[in-house]
Structure formats: structure tokens, C-alpha cells
């Protein structure tokens, strides 16, 4: 996997660059609103603050974690992530570039070089008061750019619970199409949650990017 320096297509006056660290290479994406940078131990406390109850946790991670979220669980979560040579998952925080504040979290995992595919997961706009400001759209577009442009992927998928209508609208705005519904995949209390499978292909992303740049 390699990274390229380019101007981005989704936002005006944006740029992409890589930062070389002792441990390897890290992505950074800048848009008019959002910067994606690697999620590290320094970000644990804020993420834990955002996960206020079990429902929020299950919406964010499904069955990956049990409530409450802890430093130990997050250390396991990032243990094999963000190594440009070896990892099949990259985990990011999202920063509002105007305020310098971390506003969200997102990851790109299940990266297959053979199939040129990956899966977006763990999408979260942390502060409920800041939802509806375009952060979700900015985060998704930033990650699609990394996936399709820099990692040269062909297909990116995601899953979203059918009750999360605001997230579904965000993904549709970013070009994702619905592939189907996996019914009653998660039990929460006395309820069962169904999962909507969505995806976008590289040609679809490029066509959308060209329309937005025109």
C-alpha cells in the first residue's frame, strides 16, 4: 500500500499529505472541515466520554465491545492497526480543522489487496449536539478518498442498523447503494436490530467526484 500527494476532489482548496514517523507512514486528509489522523492512546479518554451507555456502544461497534468501554479494551482495539506495511485496518479520529477539536471516529478495515476491497466501520460523531453539521459526510468522503485514491481499492462496503436513519442518509449522500438487509442480527434487550448492507465501487466514486468538481 502506498500514499500519494494530491489535491482532493470533494472539497474546494483541499490537500493530502503523508507524515513520516519513526514507526512508519501515517495518512492525514484535510478537507474544508475535516482532518483524519490516526487514533492513538491520547484519544482514548475522549472516545470513552462519548460512549455514554450500552445502546450507544452497540450502535457504534455491534458486539465488538461490552459496556463500559475501557483503556484496556481500546489498547486491544488499536494493537495491530495503522501499520502501513502490515495492517489490514486503519483507525482514525476526525478533527474539525477550523476549531481544532476532535469531533468523530472512523475506521477502514478488512482490507484485501487481492480483492481490492475494504469495509468502513466504527463511524461516530461524538458529541450529539454536533450531529447534523456535515461531519459524517466529511468523514466518509475523506475515507473514501484514502480508500479509492491512495489504497487503490475497487469496492468499499459498510453495515448500518436500519434504525439509524441519519447515518443511512449520510451514506446515501456519499454514493453508497443498498445491497440488502440482514434481519435481526443483533439482540439488544428485548429487541432485535437488523443490518443494512451498503457499498460503493471505484467507478461510482470517481463519477461522483467528477460531478462535484465540475
TrEMBL record:
This protein is called: Protein N-acetyltransferase, RimJ/RimL family
Which PROSITE patterns has this protein been placed in? GNAT (PS51186)
Query: Pfam family of this protein, just one?
Result: Acetyltransf_3
Keywords attached to this entry: Transferase
In its UniProt entry, the species of origin is given as: Cnuella takakiae
Instruction: Decide whether keyword Transferase is in the record.
Output: yes
Q: Where is the N-acetyltransferase domain?
A: 34-199
Q: Name a GO molecular-function annotation.
A: acyltransferase activity, transferring groups other than amino-acyl groups
Supply the InterPro entries for this chain.
Acyl_CoA_acyltransferase (IPR016181), GNAT_dom (IPR000182)
Amino acid at each position: 500500500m502506498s500514499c500519494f500527494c494530491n489535491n482532493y476532489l470533494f472539497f474546494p482548496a483541499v490537500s493530502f499529505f503523508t507524515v513520516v514517523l519513526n514507526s512508519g507512514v501515517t495518512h492525514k486528509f484535510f478537507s474544508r472541515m475535516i482532518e483524519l489522523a490516526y487514533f492513538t492512546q491520547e484519544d482514548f479518554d475522549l472516545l470513552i466520554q462519548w460512549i455514554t451507555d450500552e445502546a450507544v456502544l452497540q450502535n457504534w461497534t455491534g458486539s465488538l465491545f461490552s459496556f463500559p468501554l475501557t483503556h484496556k479494551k481500546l489498547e486491544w482495539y488499536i494493537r495491530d492497526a495503522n501499520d502501513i506495511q502490515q495492517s489490514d485496518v486503519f483507525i482514525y479520529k476526525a478533527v474539525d480543522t477550523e476549531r481544532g477539536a476532535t469531533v468523530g471516529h472512523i475506521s477502514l478495515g478488512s482490507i484485501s489487496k487481492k480483492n481490492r476491497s475494504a469495509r468502513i466501520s466504527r463511524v461516530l460523531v461524538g458529541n450529539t449536539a454536533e450531529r447534523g453539521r456535515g461531519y459524517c459526510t466529511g468523514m466518509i468522503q475523506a475515507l473514501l478518498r484514502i480508500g479509492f485514491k491512495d489504497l487503490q481499492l475497487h469496492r468499499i462496503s459498510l453495515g448500518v442498523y436500519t434504525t439509524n436513519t441519519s447515518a443511512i442518509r449520510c451514506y446515501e449522500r456519499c454514493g453508497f447503494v443498498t445491497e440488502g438487509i440482514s434481519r435481526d442480527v443483533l439482540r439488544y434487550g428485548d429487541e432485535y436490530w437488523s443490518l443494512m448492507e451498503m457499498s460503493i465501487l471505484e467507478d461510482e466514486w470517481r463519477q461522483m467526484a467528477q460531478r462535484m468538481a465540475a
